[in-house]
């Protein structure tokens, strides 16, 4: 991030991506003070689905975000004639707020992109350029952005086009997008130059030491009634697969159960089976219910592949299906089904056409469904998380 903030002319923007709950939002928040300390201003928000649905709504989002920055920094002066016999001019000073920017936007002729570019260009021209280096536009949940050709709405392309054009004019606006791994392929699909516009940071799960720290630090405060043994910490690390969201979820469960047990004088252990059952209901079942039985069968084949927690190809699935099903899948069938499963948010396709499971620890959940006899594929023995 620091290196990207060194750019005088912005040619490289940042994408921070990774699976659900891996820590993207938290990391994005830590970028903010770094940017401010390096003399950048920070604008941004969550890109909710409603903000991303149409070009106008996205433009409104961006205007609202930049207005927060400008109204703190820039005083807009305009002259107004005073009423009375002697005509005199009064200077009105007001912060450059949303209303003023919106007005300017409305009065600029052209398409949404032209209007937005004009306002953002104007904003840079009035910011105190000696004092600041540029503006970071940081958008979380950016995978919500999508072009909708059938509605003739292209908000995703709009964002890329506006920033590319401003950056070409050497206006130091840096785009930082955060989102699920579907984000980058989507950007490239909308505009091929997106490939060159972004540096991608792919967040993986925490390593063992960082996981241990995440488990231990919160209970190391004075007065905490709970201590974990080495064995307990290890089993939480193992169960969580190093995903911060799961670490937090499991630790909360353990904490609640232990507090109750300690009060009644018992020596507690990690209620692994209960936690897994609760996680399945709270986290996985909702996603699992979005796919059909046939699609589940395909996911179960995927969960038998040795590459299931990494990347796998259509051909690997076809081969795998021949091993575990009486009637295997054809490549075209797999392709079709993967597209629907991707729409349901359970897999994603990367830039080189390989697939990955889109939810952390999903393969283990799928194997648990298999083991419960929901389908007929025999579970293969597996090791590790
Ligand atoms: N480095 C870390 N170490 C320990 N815990 C972390 C770390 N980063 C994030 N967390 C915790 O993990 C949880 C998930 O983090 P966060 O919300 O940032 O993930 P995310 O990737 O944005 O998730 P989502 O995909 O749902 O938006 C949070 O409760 C957070 O406090
Ligand atoms: Mg997040």
Walk me through what this model shows.
- It is built from 17 helices and nine strands.
- The protein has helices spanning 2-5, 24-37, 49-52, 55-73, 98-107, 112-126, 155-168, 183-190, 194-197, 208-216, 230-240, 244-263, 272-288, 293-302, 314-324, 331-343, 362-371; strands at 13-17, 40-46, 75-81, 89-95, 134-140, 173-179, 198-202, 347-349, 355-357.
- Helix 7 (155-168) links the parallel strand 5 (134-140) and strand 6 (173-179).
- Helix 5 packs across helix 6 (112-126), helix 6 (112-126) packs parallel to helix 7 (155-168) and helix 10 (208-216) packs across helix 11.
- The chain has three domains: 2-72 and 100-202, P-loop containing nucleotide triphosphate hydrolases (Rossmann fold, 3-Layer(aba) Sandwich), CATH 3.40.50; 208-270; 287-371, Arc Repressor Mutant, subunit A, CATH 1.10.10.
- The chain is 50% helix and 13% strand.
- It is of the alpha/beta class and 385 residues long.
- Mean pLDDT is 90; it is low at 378-385.
- The two termini are 31 Å apart.
- The strands form three sheets. It has a five-stranded parallel beta sheet, with helices on both faces.
- The structure holds adenosine-5'-triphosphate and magnesium ion.
- Adenosine-5'-triphosphate (ATP) is lined by residues 18, 20-26, 206, 214, 244-245, 248.
């Amino acid at each position: 991030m620091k290196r990207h903030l060194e750019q005088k002319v912005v040619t490289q923007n940042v994408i921070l991506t990774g699976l659900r709950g891996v820590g993207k939002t938290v990391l994005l928040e830590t970028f903010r003070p770094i940017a401010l300390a390096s003399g950048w201003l920070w604008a941004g928000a969550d890109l909710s689905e409603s903000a991303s649905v149409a070009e106008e709504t996205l433009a409104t989002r961006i205007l609202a975000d930049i207005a927060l920055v400008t109204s703190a920094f820039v005083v807009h002066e305009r002259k107004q004639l005073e009423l009375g016999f002697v005509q005199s001019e009064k200077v009105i000073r007001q912060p450059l707020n949303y209303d003023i920017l919106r007005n300017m936007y409305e009065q600029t002729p052209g398409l949404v992109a032209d209007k937005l570019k004009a306002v953002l260009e104007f904003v840079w021209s009035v910011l105190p350029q000696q004092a600041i280096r540029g503006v970071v536009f940081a958008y979380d949940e950016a995978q919500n952005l999508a072009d909708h050709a059938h509605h003739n709405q292209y908000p995703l392309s709009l964002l890329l086009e506006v920033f590319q054009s401003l950056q070409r004019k050497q206006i130091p606006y840096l785009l930082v997008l955060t989102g699920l791994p579907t984000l980058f392929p989507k950007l490239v699909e909308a505009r091929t130059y997106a490939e060159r516009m972004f540096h991608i940071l792919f967040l993986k799960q925490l390593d063992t030491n960082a996981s241990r720290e995440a488990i231990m630090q919160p209970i190391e405060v004075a007065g905490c009634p709970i201590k974990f043994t080495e064995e307990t910490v290890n089993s939480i690390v193992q169960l969580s697969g190093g995903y911060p969201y799961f670490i937090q979820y499991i630790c909360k469960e353990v904490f609640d159960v232990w507090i109750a047990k300690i009060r009644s004088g018992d020596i507690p252990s990690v209620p692994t089976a209960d936690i897994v059952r609760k996680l399945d209901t709270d986290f996985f079942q909702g996603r699992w219910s979005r796919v059909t039985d046939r699609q589940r069968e395909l996911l179960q084949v995927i969960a038998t592949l040795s590459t299931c927690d990494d990347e796998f190809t259509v051909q690997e699935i076809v081969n795998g299906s021949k091993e575990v099903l009486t009637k295997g899948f054809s490549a075209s069938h797999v392709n079709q089904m993967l597209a629907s499963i991707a729409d349901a948010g359970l897999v994603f396709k990367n830039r080189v056409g390989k697939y990955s499971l889109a939810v952390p620890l999903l393969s283990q959940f799928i194997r648990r469904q298999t083991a419960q006899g929901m389908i007929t594929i025999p579970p293969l023995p597996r090791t590790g998380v």
